[in-house]
Amino acid sequence: MGTSGSFGGSKTGLVPSWVDDPPAAPAAAPADGASAPQPGSGDGVDGDDANTPVSPSAYPPLQPAPPTSGLGAARGNITRGARSSDSRAIRRGAGRYVAASGGGHRAARRMSSSRAAAGGIAGLAHAFAALGPVEALRTFKLESLAGSPATDVFVALTDALCPPGGTIDEAIARDAMLETVAALAAEGVGNFDELTSDDLQEFFISVVSRSIEGKILNEVGTNSIRLPPDLAAVERAQRMLHDFVDGCVRDRFAELGSSLAEISGEEIDEFVNDLYAATFDLMQTLGETP
Fold first, then answer.
1. Is residue 249 part of a domain?
2. Quick one: which of 50, 74, 104, 147 could link to 97 by a disulfide (CB 3.0–4.6 Å)?
3. Which of 150-154, 239-243, 280-284 is predicted with the least confidence, judged by mean pLDDT?
4. Is residue 8 part of a domain?
5. In this structure, is residue 94 part of a structural domain?
6. Residue 33 within a domain
7. pTM of the complete model
8. How large a percentage of the chain has pLDDT more than 70?
9. Which domain holds residue 148?
């Protein structure tokens, strides 16, 4: 799955038993930024009391540090799911990722390149339904490809929306598009001008799903996920994560809008943003469901 398809690095790494434990409370600090008295400093500690420890009551209690084990919990669950083919652990890991990211809206905001690419595809689908294939591609200066194989058009569209050599976030969006193109090629899709609005909508949904999937694995730490030696088990884990994310995207897409053709150009950005955020929220909710 490109970024998501690698799904792992080391097959011998260990997931610590404490990966899901809460972090230890930080050491207390002096009130008002004052330094603790030091032996021989003339600050109230004479020679006889130089080795007497300062009472903890001398310092005000501190608030606990924000949890730092969120991604560790996500990593641990995805690792367990991969090794045992446990779809529940995979879902829990994805949900823990969203929680560690601060919820659906914050997780969505961290995917600006993927949202921009998805918005471009949504705009193409809307123009395709309203104006036809040639005018739909003219926005991207690809009108000459209107009668070409759909896979060629989508590869060119990928280069237009997500040029190679960008940031990691841009690479995740690019991989999501190219993975979807590869899936279409395997299905034997025809020429671009023979596609339907539903075909373009399916391309859009698949790109959104794969971009979220890739983001999770990249953030959790692909090289830190301990994989089983059985290739079939790895492939099952990949399918389980993909199916979970894809199902969440489709559920929220159906709830937000019935067709990209019905969404105006002015509404596309808001629609895409809401779709990503709502998908992440659903993933967190389902991940916490027994």
1. yes
2. 74
3. 239-243
4. no
5. yes
6. no
7. 0.73
8. 72
9. 85-287
